[in-house]
């Protein structure tokens, strides 16, 4: 597409050369009283102008078309690259900033790749073609006309550095504004309930102020470029008028040639002016490319093992697992074995590292070689995509996606039949509520599932995992939003379906762990107690206390 555009551009610029030449022929013919030649020159001029209109249109369309395709390709690569990133990446990048890169930065690159590139190539072509014609008309006059141009080059060099710095500052500011907007909109309920409307607006005002001052700085620089460059054309014209006029008087140059010379020189003026604009555009695009480069850099690929039998329940061995966020230790020397097809329950104090353990098993954060083995294979050597294909993960806040209940329940198995949908809904005790919705499974859940209750959201997230039918289940407190009776009912309905799976269930409600083959109580990243329900009761330790507390709480709630 670019090559086609370049072809049309070349034709446009060739036709551009014809026009001043016809002016020369016309003026010289008029001076000699050759009426027919004058008419012919005028006719060629008219046809040339019309043709140029067409070729210019086609060249622009081709360049803009290719830029749009580039933007689409880059956006697709960006999303695909973002979705491959692990937990640490998302911990260190803000959503608003990432959104700004996927919108504002891409738009800067598209503008440069479309109009910017068109103007740049046009400038090069016009300069090459026009200069060769100018030289053929009068080499000495051409050299005179070019006197101011080295000044232009120096100016371009000086301004480009300053423009790049100013553009980066503007784009960073835009990233901060997007971030504040994103947080303001998604956190609107908290902001209003804490009456922080004024505070947030003041903060936004401050960010806007910073953005304004960096934008003004950039605008001043950009405003300066055009007028400074516009000075160059008149200097050249002045020199040509004085020295060229002298030659016409001396009879060394025809009037037509002087007029054509000046017209060609004028043709250089526009691209020269546009060069300033392209320069600032180019610097903005360079700053954007820099911001996108880190996101688009492919992750280092290591030779990963293919899974032997991903569909059978695996045995997971955790050996002396240590993990820290930013140097802050969370899991310390943790060792645990989940035998194939067993149910392991985990409870413990808040912040003891339960969710972290699940995230590590899902491969969201890197672990050291040998710390986690699945079916005897080191997790760090496994193909992450294949590893995740056997997972059924229910995170603490099971995020739903805009769409219908059906879309969400079958999210992991698009295109599955409605029979599966009904089975899944039955298994997570959601069928009665779905039947009560006017539109049944076609009910829209709203952004993030906000049209559903917390308990319904959790059951949809459970159903989504069930439909996926993984062999390693990682459940992170999936019943926390359900009342004790419903939680027990859902868990009892679910258990028979998980019989041949390896399941790790984190639950703050220890009573749900009674049926587990192995129960682990975590405390500050270490195993505080481990055993079966009977063994831990006999121990009369933390587990027994937690169970008793829960029983008393339920009795009190019952009395109330
Ligand atoms: N992405 C993160 N970046 C930095 N620190 C984190 C991150 N996620 C968790 N932590 C910290 O790690 C510790 C363990 O958190 P984790 O969520 O694993 O605990 P938990 O046992 O699941 O807690 P809860 O029962 O409250 O859900 C906490 O101190 C928490 O502040």
TrEMBL record:
Q: How does it sit in the membrane?
A: Multi-pass membrane protein
Q: Which residues cross the membrane?
A: 36-54, 115-135, 141-159, 223-244, 264-282
Q: Where is this protein chiefly located?
A: membrane
Q: Which InterPro entries match?
A: AAA+_ATPase, ABC1_TM_dom, ABC1_TM_sf, ABC_transporter-like_ATP-bd, ABC_transporter-like_CS, P-loop_NTPase, Type_1_exporter
Which terms are listed as keywords in the entry?
Answer: ATP-binding, Cell membrane, Membrane, Nucleotide-binding, Transmembrane, Transmembrane helix, Transport
Residue ranges occupied by any ABC transporter domain in the UniProt entry: 316-549
PANTHER family registered for this protein in UniProt: ABC TRANSPORTER, ATP-BINDING CASSETTE SUB-FAMILY B
Q: Mind telling me what this protein is named?
A: ABC transporter ATP-binding protein
Q: Which organism is it from?
A: Syntrophotalea acetylenivorans
